[in-house]
Specification:
By secondary structure, the chain is α+β, with helices and mostly antiparallel strands. It has helices spanning about 20-25, 55-65; strands at about 40-45, 50, 70-80, 85-90, 110, 110-120. The protein contains 2 helices and 6 strands, in the order H-E-E-H-E-E-E-E. Strand 1 and strand 2 form a beta hairpin. The protein is extended, with a radius of gyration of 19 Å. The N and C termini lie far apart (about 45 Å).
Length: about 130
């Protein structure tokens, strides 16, 4: 695997990991850069360079966790009031008061607003 720390690390910019780590779930943070827009922008914050995560990366980072929440059937990117948001699609909305805190869709993810949209039960159509 190639590292992000430069050629001074590991064996000429590469490191080795036992395959058993992958099989047993000890190494789970794998990703590949498929689109340059997934990287984000470098911005200055308090005099320091910070990479601002793109909404695509933010969605991908949280999608698996969101899909485990009650009634969630999908995650996407859309608009609400002219603003790009992370859409969370649910079979039906329920009051936050009946959900446990860990079951509530966060209001924001990585600085992007979320929008929960009720779409009903999704089924495959037959011809």
């Amino acid at each position: 695997m190639r590292n992000s720390w430069g050629a001074g690390w590991g064996s000429g910019d590469y490191g080795w990991l036992p395959y058993e780590y992958v099989l047993t779930g000890l190494a789970v943070d794998w990703w590949s850069l498929l689109k340059t827009e997934w990287i984000g922008d470098i911005v200055l914050t308090n005099g320091k360079e910070v990479i601002e995560m793109s909404i695509e990366v933010a969605k991908m980072k949280h999608e698996e966790q969101l899909m485990r929440l009650p009634n969630v059937t999908g995650v996407g990117i859309g608009e609400k009031a002219g603003k790009v948001v992370i859409k969370v699609f649910v079979t039906h909305k329920v009051p936050e008061s009946v959900l446990r805190p860990q079951e509530i869709v966060p209001k924001t993810l990585e600085g992007y607003e979320t929008d929960v949209e009720e779409i009903g039960v999704v089924t495959a159509q037959t011809h």
